[in-house]
Amino acid sequence: MQFVNAFSHLPALLLLYWKQVVNTLFKLINGNKNLFIYFLFPLIISVFTTFSLSTFASEPQVKKPDILKVALGSEPASGFDPILGWGKYGNPLFQSTLLKRDKELNFVGDLATKWRLTNNKLTWIVTLRNDVQFSDGTPLTAEDVAFTYNQILQQSSTHDLSALKMAEPLTPYSVAFHLTQCDITFLDRFSSIGIVPKHVYQQQDNSFRYGSSPVGSGPYVLTKWVKNQYVSMKLNPYYYGKTPHFSQLIAVFGSEESRFIQLKTHQLDLSVVPQRYANQTLKGYKLWSVPTLDNRGIVWPMHYNKNAEMTYITADPAIREVFDYLIDKQLIVDKLLDGYATPAYSIADNMPWGLDTQDITSKKVNLSHANALLAQAGWSDSNNNGTLDKQGHEASFSLLYKAGDSVREQLALAISSMAAKVGININVKGLEWNDIALQMTTTPVLMGFGSHSASEVTYVYHSRYAHTDFYNSGGYRNPQVDSAIDKALKAPSWDASLPFWQQAQQQIQQDRPWTWLVNIQHLYMAKNCLDLGKPITEPHDHGWPLTANIEEWRWTCQ
């Protein structure tokens, strides 16, 4: 009977079953072909399709996918160019760095085999591997390394190389980095700057930008970038390290909602997810929670600007202190973030340059004490409108956060609700970063940091970086903090620098230029068959830090 041939692509047992059904029905109607075609056959197709699709949909995918489809984070606005900042907060993936960090965050060689500090701690000498090639087959040499660092000095970049005078190739496989001043944290740059090929980067013009078609020495090669949609990549045949198990990857971009829809429809093998989706069970997926140094807090404008009314409120030390007694950090962790976070007290909790949280007794919410502090500072509700005021200034201000980030939005709304209990009015606003940048020197921002490097303490708190980019956006200045940080940077060794970092932190705690809220865990949904190995402690969530151990990822089902 020819009708059953349409089912020949289905599994043999299922085909045999339906063939028997068709033949039996055909016999029952005594071979009446017209009745079979116009009545019974459409009915069979409908039942068969419903049964078959439901059967296949319920079966988890166990076969290793030819292409691993992932959603790792945001799309880099300036492309995949390390000179412009790609890979600073994570693995550059298409490029290699001189050093990288192991599971304990210690430095190990990547392109570098040796590194030493000489010349009164003003020169780093780095020896390179001699067997590394870029993805176009050309050798990676000291010329490329020196070019990369010198190029950052010459153009706008998110990397801070202010301590670098110049990088100089000494031999084909050794480079000298000459510093203008001692900087104990300069070594950290070696793990955050991917190396670009000089001969390719210099070819840039109006028709070719390196960040759109990068050539590098990392484990993968970018093959296609459809902006605002996805990038595809394949293994770099010239990669010198351990080869990852997946020959092709597609990284898709989109909102939190769109990524979760793609997970629910099994279009993705792996995706980063916000805390609000953490407890939603998806068949065929498991949740990975990765420890981080990624924090969230409120950065306060520290000085009164007569042209910006809100700065009168934020510049008042009493207002900033009150938030220590208003905010229930543990409640936020437990109820708002479903336990996938910890209370935060510094820019780098439990790191040598941050605060040891074991030594901190968290302040309990105490509205009576908060009200007393405000009254002592001269704040009262003189016009009985529910909002405190002082010398004609109402305790009302905006709190900005990155639009589309549900964690920041939830935090901002929670802080607003808590502050309202003592008569402080907070207007929460979600904006894009370019709009936030225009207002952040005079408006509080719910921001995040978190790095493997102590240099972030310098950027966020030193007066040298006041109102510089997104770093010390509140304009915090304290000569004692500056002095302690400078002494740390100039210390003869890393261990010798630690007391100065701690000294700076103690003063920062008193001044409260930030109100730190939580350290968040990074959450990922991965198919049950996808083993992500042992991810390292991740920095702030710019970039794709999960790929730092991509060579450990493997498909466990056969």
UniProtKB/TrEMBL annotation:
Keywords from the named record: Membrane, Signal, Transmembrane, Transmembrane helix, Transport
Organism phylogeny: Bacteria, Pseudomonadati, Pseudomonadota, Gammaproteobacteria, Vibrionales
GO biological process, one term: peptide transport
Stretches that traverse the bilayer: 35-57
Keyword Transmembrane part of the UniProt annotation: yes
Domain Solute-binding protein family: 107-445
Superkingdom to which the source organism belongs: Bacteria
Protein name, UniProt field: ABC transporter substrate-binding protein
GO cellular component, one term: outer membrane-bounded periplasmic space
Matches recorded under InterPro entries: Peptide/Ni-bd (IPR030678), SBP_5 (IPR039424), SBP_5_dom (IPR000914)
Pfam family, one: SBP_bac_5
UniProt source species: Aliivibrio finisterrensis
